[in-house]
Amino acid sequence: MNSPAPSDPPAILAEGLRKSFQDPERGLVEAVKGIDLRCLRGEIYGLLGPNGAGKTTTLRMLATILSPTAGRASIDGVDVAVDPLEVRRRIGFLSTSTGLYPRLTVRETLRYFGKLHGLAGDALEARIEELVAAFDMGGYADGRTEAFSTGQKQKVSIARAVLHEPPVLILDEPTTGLDILASSTMIEFVEERRAAGTCILLSTHIMSEAERLCDRIGVIWGGELLAEGTQAELCEQTGEAYLDGVFMSLVRAAGYGAAEEPTA
Amino acid sequence: MTDGRPLRVWRLVLVTELLGILRDRRALFAGLVLPALLYPLMFLGQGWLEDIAEETLEAKEVHIAVELAQLDEELRERVLQLLEQQVPIVIDELPPGACDAIDAALQEGTPEAWMRESELAQDILGTDGDLLLHALPDPSAPENALFRMHFDGANDDSREARSRTNEALDTLREEQRTARFASDFGGDPAAGFVSRSLDLASDEDKGGALLGRLLPLIAVLVLLSGGSFAALAAFAGERESGTLETLLVQPVEGLKIVQGKFLAVLTASFATLVLNTASLLGCVALGLGKLPAEGAAGGLGIDRILLGALLLVPVSLLVASVLCLVCGKARSFREGQNYILPLTLVAALPSALALSPEVELDPLLACVPIAGSALALREAMIGNLAWLPGLLAFSTTLGYAWLALRKLGTLFDGERALSDSRAPEELAQRRGQSRAALAWGWGGVFAVYLVGGLVQSLHPLWGLAATLWLLLPFAAWRAARGTARRAGESLRETLALRLPAPHHALAAVLLAPPLVRLAETWIVWQQTVLPLPSGMTDGGGLAEEILSLSPASLVFALAVSPGICEELFFRGAILSGLRRDLPAWRVVLWQAVLFGAVHASIYRFAPTAVLGALLAALTLRTRSLLPAVLLHIAYNGSLVLGHDALPFLSSPWTPYLAVPALLLLALPGRGTP
Q1: Which residues touch B291 (CB under 8 Å, ≥6 apart)?
Q2: Is B245 exposed, middle or buried (CB count within 10 Å of its CB: 0-12, 13-18, 19+)?
Q3: CB proximity A18 to B under 8 Å
Q4: Which of B247, B165, B257 is nearest to A98 (CA)?
Q5: Would you call B253 and A263 a contact, using CB atoms and an 8 Å cutoff?
Q6: Cα–Cα distance for residue pair A69/A63, rounded to 1 Å
Q7: Burial level of B198, CB count in 10 A (0-12/13-18/19+)?
Q8: Could you point out which of A125, A186, B300, B476 has its C-alpha 20 to 30 Å from the C-alpha of B509?
Q9: Phi and psi (nearest 5°) for B502?
Q10: Are B466 and B583 part of one and the same domain?
Q11: Is B541 contained in some domain?
């Protein structure tokens, strides 16, 4: 793991990040209730929590898809509210719900998103070839993605997300719904990027994935970050041996009944 | 980079979208190829069918058996001569007396004789005879001859034989008449009164009049069909393939991407229009088909064509942006497809106004979306577009297109496109409530059909009263009770029984006279395409008992009662339930469908559906049921009392009351209590 100099700003910084939605019937609904995050370069940070805990909303705010109701966040030193387009240039965003244009080929897909990122000409073509080679897509790079297997599609999506060589990757449940082969491609890719010094923030509800991949883990529940630290720190803090025990004990300590569903 | 250079983003998105369409065989075929092939197929198919029908019948040899022994020799020769000209024909002259049996049968005059007549004729004709022609002297004027034909109306050959025989006999009749006039009067006494009409319209005017009536409807339909596949692929397809979120994290403003997609939709619909027009003109030029008026398009001046094309520009913009909006709201391809058909109908109806010459382009109509442009296009083709309505139609359509285009920005706004604060369980519950409201709505409609129909057949007046004052309020109470309980509010809140802002109430009353005029204009037009069957009167099938009431009672029975009771049910109970899950525009659409359906008549569907939609929009806008009740009473009351009792209805200024009414509605009213 590359240790960044202490003076470097964190790659991802969130302070008191809140998101509430105005619901016509229920009034104000708070999906995220003030979250603080610091993720460094060369680090994999995992947001661990069940469905509806506020993971996706948090990641979408960091990726400038949603704007925060309160608090502030910056990517690579750029404030998400001040210059969202600059933030988008510095992140690669991917979720398992992400799809591809069925009628475009791999190269056309990469070309389209490359041009949206301002790449052009020989530099773009060279980068596309580099990615086609890196992800071993040469055999089907001129085929339309509609006929692809899940694993092939996953590779195209990953290549699309890192096309512009972003210093920060935001991955929303990157392995949910993937088979073993596709999800191991994903995990290898994430580890490779960490080695290359990229900051990776991912969300997951799979304990084993978090245990294997993440340098630091934040446990999120009901829109709040209950605890944060390395796996060892979390185990020590709660006196549990495994991550699922850590999770349950944190949730109970936060005053939620075990059977209660999160509200947002 | 790109944010400073919108052109680059537009071009990139446009090219990528068009590439997608060109690779989608289904879209390509239905959106581009089919409209282009429409005319050749139509013309060829029509010509082919006609040719076959004509060739086969005209070339066919018909067999005629004649018995002309009772005519004098000269006449007999002439008849045979004329028949022989109807080639190819085989004439079989029967021996004298061959038809005596038929004569005898006819002279009996009994029904059995008629049966025997056809049997006998069949016997004489045998299997290959098509027609039997039998000449008799006229008992009342012996110098005249009577001809009797026996033929088989179910047989093509036999009918052809009849038409050829008729032709021969017509010629004979004409010859005899001329001869008779010449011998009795020395000429035709009516010859001095021959009238000759000459159409002063130039070929260009005639062609323009025809094209002008057809073109608006064709253009709108073709623009819609060409654009809809592009819009579905660009917006609904984007959601379905899960690429929307990816687009939202690109370093380009969402609005620019939407604009690029809009350009793709515009290009596709415009390309379809051009292909369609080229195919029409090409077919005419190649002689494949003919427009109903000779030389219609050829005679049209370039100035009229250019003016027409200019008027179509804002229409194309409006159609493309509305298609984008509609498909952008759809959560899937299929949902988007479900919206296209109603949208096509909504757009086709106002453009069909141009079909009927009775509807004239006035400044108010010029401001109605699609209708104004359609009528202006017609006038431009005829060559008498007045500048004020023309300019109004052009600029207001441009204005509507601009409003729709501005709305496009919201489509790729992450807050709206992706966020949904509501938990899945709550969403499901709300969906359930909307479904329940819809079920109640249809239940109410069928209850009115069945129960209302039954009690009104027992007694028209009391049956109507029972339907309105017992059935509908009961249904309203039952439907609203469920919605209120689930939403945790009182029945009064659910039914929107609260006072509106006074200016909103006033606006509702002001809207009634223009609406009455609109309905009357519609009925006049509808009469030309869907005439009321004779016997059905304006009373809409109301019974004598009701029509003979005093005006005050009539107003109570047909205006006040429905105004209160129908509103309680439709705009009270059903609307609040639908609103729990559906967006406002779908609530309004369902209200139109339900309210049109409950009136159970195809002749009243359109006016009542429009009224239902307006009343629903009014209730949503004012957050109160009262304006809808007022408008409904005022509208029905005006129709019941008519122009004689309410002379202001006939004023040319009445339609303009809509302007202050809409302005008042635009003012803020009471907020949520």
Answers
A1: B207, B210, B211, B284, B297
A2: buried
A3: no
A4: B247
A5: no
A6: 15
A7: exposed
A8: B476
A9: -55, -40
A10: yes
A11: yes
Tell me A144's DSSP state. Answer: B
Find the CB nearest A115 among B12, B414, B419: B12
Quick check: B297 pLDDT over 60? no
Residue B261's domain spans which residues?
Answer: 6-44+203-306+321-351+413-422
Interchain CB contact of A115 with B (< 8 Å): yes
C-alpha A233/C-alpha B448 separation (Å) is 71
**Cβ distance of B251 and A144 shorter than 8 Å:** no
Kindly provide the ipTM of the predicted complex, given to two decimals.
Answer: 0.88
**B39 and B61 housed in the same domain:** no
Task: Enumerate residues 408 to 437 of chain B having a beta carbon within 8 A of any beta carbon in chain A.
Answer: 414-415, 418-423, 426
Please indicate whether, in this complex, the C-beta atoms of A31 and B421 are within 8 angstroms of each other.
Answer: yes
CA dihedral B341, B347, B350, B352 (to 10 degrees): -70
Is residue B19 less than 8 Å (CB to CB) from chain A?
A: yes
Q: Do A101 and B20 count as a contact with CB atoms less than 8 A apart?
A: yes
Q: Strand ranges (DSSP E) for chain A? A: 12-23, 27-39, 44-48, 70-75, 78-79, 91-95, 168-172, 199-204, 216-221, 224-229
B249: chain A residues, CB-CB within 8 Å: 63-65, 88, 91, 93
Residue B553 touches chain A, beta carbons under 8 Å: no
Neighboring chain B residues of A29 at a CB cutoff of 8 Å: 421-422
Q: Is the pLDDT of residue A83 over 80?
A: yes
pLDDT tens, residue by residue, A151-179: 888 889 989 999 999 999 999 888 877 78
Q: Which of B250, B421, B426 sits opposite A21 (nearest CB)?
A: B421
- Whether residue B339 is found in the same domain as residue B257: yes
Q: Is residue B183 part of a domain?
A: no
Residues B89 and B34 in one domain: no
B246 interfacial to chain A (CB closer than 8 Å): yes
Relative orientation angle of helices B156-185 and B34-58, to the nearest 10 degrees: 70
Residue B64 β-bridge partners = B91, B131
Q: Which residues of A touch B246 (CB under 8 A)?
A: 93, 98-99, 113, 160
Chain B residues inside the 8 Å CB shell of A85: 3, 251-253
Q: How far apart are CA B528 and CA B352, in angstroms?
A: 12
- Is residue A146 a contact partner of residue B237, using CB atoms and an 8 Å limit? no
Q: Give how many domains chain B has, as a whole number.
A: 3
In a domain, B621, yes or no: yes
Give the C-alpha separation, B91 to B246, whole Å. Answer: 83
Can you tell me the distance from the alpha carbon of A119 to that of A129, in angstroms, rounded to the nearest whole number? Answer: 14
With an 8 Å Cβ cutoff, is A52 touching chain B? yes
Tell me which residues of chain A, numbers 160 to 189, contact chain B at a CB-CB cutoff of 8 Å: 160
Q: Please check whether residues B628 and B513 belong to one and the same domain.
A: yes
Which chain A residue has its CA at the smallest distance from B10's CA? A116
CA distance A48 to chain B (A): 20
- Per-residue pLDDT tens over the stretch B589-598: 999 999 998 8
Percent of chain A whose pLDDT exceeds 90: 52
User: Would the CB atoms of B251 and A88 count as touching at under 8 Å?
Assistant: yes
CA pair distance B408, B389, nearest whole angstrom = 28
| A31 in contact with B, Cβ within 8 Å | yes
Distance from CA of B249 to the nearest CA of A (A): 6
Q: Based on the fold, state whether residues B63 and B26 are members of the same structural domain.
A: no
Paired tokens of B148: 């009797």
B135: part of which helix (H) or strand (E)? strand B131-137
Rounded (5°) CA angle A128-A134-A137: 75
Domain membership flag for residue B287: yes
Q: What is the pLDDT of residue A113?
A: 95
Cβ-contact B513, B590 below 8 angstroms: no
* Selected residue with higher pLDDT from B292 and B301: B301
Check whether residue B331 and residue B445 sit in a common domain.
no
Output the pLDDT for position B673: 37
